[in-house]
Amino acid sequence: MDSVGVLVWLSIVVTILSRSHADRNVYPSAGVLFVHVLEREYFKGEFPPYLKPGDASNDPITFNTNLMGYPDRPGWLRYIQRTPHSDGVLYGSPTAEQVGKPTVIEITAYNRRTFETARHNLIINIMSTEEFPLPYQAEFFIKNMNVEEMLASEVLGDFLGAVKNVWQPERLNAINITSALDRGGRVPLPINDLKEGVYVMVGADVPFSSCLREVETPQNQLRCSQEMEPVISCDKKFRAQFHIDWCKISLVDITKVVPVHREKPEPGTGILPDIGEYKPPSESLESRDYFTDFLITLAVPSAVALVLLLVLGYSMCCRREGVIQLVHHSSIQKSTKELRSMSKNREISWPLSTLPVFHPVSGEVVPPIHPDSYETTSMPLMQTQTNLQNQMQIPRQQPSGWLNVARLINLFFKIVNGIPEERKVAEALNL
């Protein structure tokens, strides 16, 4: 590293934890990159078996950092650790709003082999500076670097030295470093040792050099729109170690930036008035007894249901209309049951007088004995009933068997021998 790079790197605040168990105090400047390395070698002595300096140990150690009393870090402070066998790094650029406000960061180290923990506090005291903010700021995108590689003191010092040779400022500071993944970049494929890329913002007190402004020429803008590399005369001063994407360089002169003042809109009819911050109730409030509410919730519906039940019972059991309906319903049920039982117990055949018969000689259908005008509704349900008008005697069925067969043969011979028609009909009816 040349002398220019060494002088530039002296403006960057880099602190390393000491061996002391007391809280550590660091004093970064507002608007200047702050880097704090969490060394694994320091925390190895905190876990049993306690090793002496120089003893070999490769326990996996990870770190957790958070603002005291909160689960995460301040918005301006970032943390990165690639593997449990590499050091952790806290980095960021404090703003002027944090000046004079001590920030306590709790650092907890976890030994992934023994499951032991060690905790230390880092007190960040942000100081103000007369050089903040530097008026001319340039942001470079370096394609062949990761953020933890760029945070190394030697690498960052080399990059600032190259920028100083191209820019030639009197004061040059690294303002911020951001991983390309935080800007929406994609994780590169694990081939050809590809890097994720890193954005580095630097500030100076003199205007941009002609070399940096070459990217703004129409020819280079056209090449960038066609995804071609622009022609930059000073690129060779970076190319040996840093591959810069000149199409993504950003040059900002904050002296020409017009601040935008946004007026607070007046609340309309659909916006609730501002009533201040939410103040939760104190812990001294007495607990509320919900037993009475529980009884009321059950008693009211139960009382209404009981009243309706009493009214319905009085109407059906105590009033004449209700009693008549119950008696009528009971009689219908009783009659229906009786009819069903009678229909199951009937085993006699249907009366022959109700069925059509065939004439034994002519073969014509003989209608039933009683005419069509006979009132069938007066027929008794049971055959044992008597003394009813127009009741007819049901013929007694003859026993079946060989006797009927003999009678049919005898009738056949009589018909052949010329028996009179009246006698044939009478004998046929007696079968």
What does this structure look like?
- Among the domains are: 12-130, Immunoglobulins (Immunoglobulin-like); 134-255, 2-Layer Sandwich (Alpha-Beta Plaits); 403-431.
- It has eleven helices and 14 strands.
- The protein has helices at residues 3-9, 40-44, 147-150, 153-167, 210-213, 218-225, 236-239, 291-317, 320-345, 402-416, 421-430; strands spanning 13-16, 24-26, 34-38, 61-67, 77-80, 88-92, 103-111, 117-124, 136-142, 172-179, 198-204, 250-253, 357-358, 365-366.
- Helix 1 (3-9) packs across helix 4 (153-167).
- The longest helix is centred in the last third of the chain and has 27 residues, at 291-317.
- It starts with a helix and ends with a helix.
Q: How many E-type strands?
A: 14
- For this structure, what is the CATH class of the domain at 134-255? Alpha Beta
Tell me the distance between the termini: 141 Å
- Which segments are poorly predicted (pLDDT under 50) over 5 or more consecutive residues? 3-21, 381-395
Largest sheet: 4 strands, mixed
Mean pLDDT: 76
If helices are DSSP runs of H or I spanning 4 or more residues, what is the number of helices?
11
Assembly context of the chains: single chain
The secondary structure category is alpha+beta
Residues in helices, as a percent range: 25-40%
Q: Tell me the overall shape.
A: elongated
* CA gyration radius, whole angstroms: 56 Å
